[in-house]
Amino acid sequence: MASPLEQFEVKPIVNILIEGVDLSFTNSALWMVITSVAVYWLIVLGTRQHAMVPGRLQSLVEMAYEFVAGLIRENSGKEGMRFFPLIFTMFMFILMGNMLGMIPGSFTWTSHIIVTFFMAMCVWLGVTIYGFYLHGAKFLGFFVPHGAPVYMVPLLVPIEILSYCVRPISLSVRLFVNMMAGHTMMKVFAGFIVALGVFGIAPLAVAVALTGFEIAVAFLQAYIFTVLTCIYLHDAIHMH
To answer: Distance (Å, rounded) from C-alpha 187 to C-alpha 99?
Structure first.
């Protein structure tokens, strides 16, 4: 029986080695490209008609648009709407990657910490730079809790800085762990189904239930990543 972790192995499709640096095109990169193309055509096909009475595809795209716009308004304020294209693209990219990963034989690139950490670092660096761009050196006041006694500031500031610096770690690990754990469990129960043969009804029922649960998790993790991005953006804009 194949290892449940075998599905996460990154394998080169086109070997590219330049000056000792491995730049091979892998199955992970392939499924990121597929995800990008799928998101692009979903938006294009869903918005090309502009019908007064939208069809299913147009309704789906409009719902996604309003959903993300609502998240930004609620968590970042109207000032955060200037970043709507970026946040909407990120949400759709993660969501589509998670959903495509549910297809048997596909590759779930969101189950790799290096990918989710890179995305989280881009978000963290982006909002930090934007915070300094808006407020200059005053942005450092974000690390001084409002209303804190003066004698507590030397203790609280390092804690606030540490808490701020671990944001990309918590943001990336949450997405990576949930996707990897869910797919591993599904693989384990799928192995029981094959091994038990006609007696595999119980693990089959569990696998079906896990599939539905994993689809919900796929959406939830894209939602959480987006919400936290909006909250971080709110901190950069409003400093509280």
So the answer is: 16
What is the token pair recorded at 151? 């004698």
Residue 100 resides in a domain? yes
Sign of CA dihedral 204, 205, 210, 211: positive
Q: Which domain holds residue 111?
A: 6-238
Using CA atoms of 91, 62, 106, 11 in order, give the dihedral in degrees to the nearest 10. Answer: -40
pTM, two decimals, is 0.89
The answer, yes or no, to whether residue 225 has pLDDT greater than 80, is yes
How far is C-alpha 159 from the geometric centre of its chain's CA atoms? 26
Residue 31 in domain: yes
Angle between helices 201-238 and 56-76 (to 10 degrees): 50
Q: Residue 1 domain-assigned?
A: no
What stretches of 101-200 show up as alpha helix (H) in DSSP?
Answer: 113-135, 153-165, 167-196
Spatial distance between the Cα atoms of 232 and 168, rounded to a whole number of angstroms: 11
* Gap between the Cα atoms of 232 and 125, Å rounded: 10
Greater model confidence, 189 or 31: 31
| pLDDT of residue 171 exceeding 60 | yes
Main-chain phi, psi angles of 2, to 5 degrees:
-70, 150
80: left (phi over 0), alpha (psi -120 to 50) or beta: alpha
